[in-house]
Design brief:
With 395 residues, the protein is α/β, with parallel strands linked by helices. Helices cover 37% and strands 20% of the residues. The strands form two sheets. An eight-stranded mixed sheet has the order 5-4-3-2-1-6-8-7, with helices on both faces. A six-stranded mixed sheet has the order 11-10-9-12-14-13, sandwiched between helices. The structure holds adenosine-5'-diphosphate (ADP).
Length: 395
Amino acid sequence: MKVLVLNCGSSSLKYQLMDMEDKTVLAKGLVERIGITGSRLTHRRGEETKVVAQELSSHREAIALVLETLVDAQYGVISGLGEIGAVGHRVVHGGEKFAASVLIDAEVMAALAECVELAPLHNPPNIMGIEACQKLIPGVPQVAVFDTAFHQTMPPYAYIYGLPYELYEKYKIRKYGFHGTSHKYVSIRAAEILGRPLSETRLITCHLGNGASIAAVKGGKSLETSMGFTPLEGLMMGTRSGDLDPAIVSFIMEKEKLSAEEANDFLNKKCGVLGVSGVSSDFRDIEEAAAAGNFRAQLALDIFAYDVKKYIGAYAAVLDGVDGIVFTAGLGENSPEMRESITAGLGYLDVQVDPEKNKVRGREADISRDGARCRVLVIPTNEELMIAQDTVEIV
Ligand code: ADP
């Protein structure tokens, strides 16, 4: 079966068409600036790239262009839309309703609409993408795969905050966690690489990208994760503050005369390594500035590594010991320096990274010294494959 995987953001859309017979990517691409001037599609088929500049006022127009390109005589990869067996959508927030991926029907659409309040920026474009597909390729089954679903196995003592319980009942304020598809994918791969049944593994999965989160995964189930009610909690990230004394928020609002919306924007977009370093939100720029002697850039890297290390220690306690630590996403997959800083001093968990093996970038590897009990793995994430696999299973 051929599966179209869609990830709709507010003004962008990523897609991949996969052949699930042999799990190959037939084509993939990105549509940018939807609803703003200068929209364009970048389509990749193997090594070939095709760019189409065309004004696209909605996600529906963007998806129509993607479908057109997929069947294009010159750049396409299928001869007709009938070859698309199913569509898998990445949906950011599934609230408490969805602990697994689901086949989309009217009832699911109504439940997704209810989740908009929890993810006002992310869920509306996801819903638009689904509605567009319903109109453009009616009858093709569609599946929703949620970022939050994998973490629905957390116990209440992990997801309830120290707030009056009524707020959980009234507004559903609780920890949800995100990046679930990635944490799930790398957990499954880690068990395969370790040669153990997933049910017998205790893993700490570190998804370190521009957005970053860590999960404690026991027997393939998420017990705890660092992101919370929103993706703002947990590690300091590219532009997000991560954990703070909550009193700082009202203090800044008063001092800087910020509205609630402005404060939320500030904490999500102006803080993190960008705010500390004053250099960039991109770890490559920060590593470069730190190497050139920039104190604040070095401080940002030190805070980040320290944060991750603290969470690893905490999650070792949650899991009752650790069999493997997994590094994934942009920074986790590509920065030997960051992996080295994080894992130095974790000898008490029998974590011993081999400096030679740690030189790896962007491919699967076990970077531990021979004989070390807790294995340290680099596993490039593949959320699209996970979405496509769930889609095939459900359809
Ligand atoms: P997201 O999907 O959250 O946007 P990614 O997983 O693509 O993030 O990760 C982006 C981050 O990974 C950026 O901060 C980038 O600097 C970092 N990164 C990518 N490649 C490297 C590298 N070679 N060395 C250090 N950091 C890298």
